[in-house]
Amino acid sequence: MTAPTVRRSALSSLDGASEWLNTEPLTATGLHGNVVAVQFCTYSCINWIRTLPYVRAWVSAYSDLGLVVVGAHAPEFAFEHELEGVHRAMEQMGVRHPIVLDNEYAIWRSFSNRYWPALYLLDGEGRLRYHHFGEGAYNETEAVFRELLSVDDEPVRVEATGVEAAADWDTLRSPETYVGYGQGERRVGDGGEGLALNQWALAGPWTIEEESAVLEAHAGSIAYRFHARDAHLVLSRGAREPIPFRVLLDGEIPGPSHGVDVDDDGNGLLREGRLYQLVRQHDAVRERTLEITFLEPGAEAYVFTFG
């Protein structure tokens, strides 16, 4: 992989950041001498969420040895700009390392970044020594900063569970699918009858906006024909009160194939903007039709992701 063009002064972009979580503001000068891992994230991104067990383990094992992990939160969706939402999400996910809000993408641009997640590893002089885009390469990444830190102990061991568990790549046949008109594709008709694999449809009074589909009245639904162990949907709400929803798989309650945000009977509650895990197939992964129905108006649906 060819290294991207990153200016030697890329870390100086931290100097002008005013909103930090879990730390006092960090600066390029203050970080001098440390190995610094800058990871670009946005809290609704399943690909970033699945890196968290490794990042948390690295922070725990190597912070006292000179590693500083900085999460640069560059929001993908409008609701992710709000400090309160970022703070809540990081608390819920157990993120304790420094997080800087990059709402204007100044840090993003200084690294010439284009991906979530993306990790850039810089040595004590602020020079780029390694980068990786997306999930995976955890052993390779750890080996690089262990070398920079001159660490000889055993690498960390990680067991990811729940929504953070790695995707079942061998059975994954469904791609990330956006709902808004800006990047939306593979939508067909209305209702969920006769969908082919990776097609989806709306039923009810929805308004399609650039980033999302917004339910204007009660009892609107989205159906998606997918092939994956896990099915997620990024949701937010324009209503004041939480919005109840119901998930069906092939027209029936999900039972043991429910996701972490749904019970056995398919019931869930849209409380805040984030990624919701709707399905985790408990037996052999096969092609299924997911239907999610919102019982009150105000639901905003952004993107389906799978694992």
Q: Can you walk through the features of this model?
A:
The chain is an alpha+beta fold. It folds into 2 domains: 155 residues, Glutaredoxin, CATH 3.40.30; 130 residues, Galactose-binding domain-like (Jelly Rolls). Helix content is 15%, strand content 31%. It is built from 6 helices and 18 strands. The chain has a 6-stranded mixed beta sheet, with helices on one face. Strand 5 and strand 6 form a beta hairpin. The two termini are 25 Å apart.
If you consult CATH, what is the topology of the largest domain?
A: Glutaredoxin
User: What value does the Rg take, in angstroms?
Assistant: 20 Å
Number of strands: 18
Our estimate of the beta-strand percent is: 25-35%
CATH domain class name of the largest domain: Alpha Beta
Helical stretch tally: 6
Write the CATH architecture name of the largest domain.
3-Layer(aba) Sandwich
H/E order of the elements? Answer: EHEHHEHEHEEHEEEEEEEEEEEE
Distance between the termini: 25 Å
Q: Estimate the mean pLDDT confidence.
A: 95
Q: Strand order within the widest sheet?
A: 1-4-3-2-5-6
CATH homolog superfamily of the largest domain:
Glutaredoxin
Q: Any idea what the shape is? A: globular
Helix content: 10-25%
- Structural class given helices, strands, pairing? alpha+beta
Number of domains: 2
Low-pLDDT regions: none
Task: Characterize the biggest β-sheet.
Answer: 6 strands, mixed
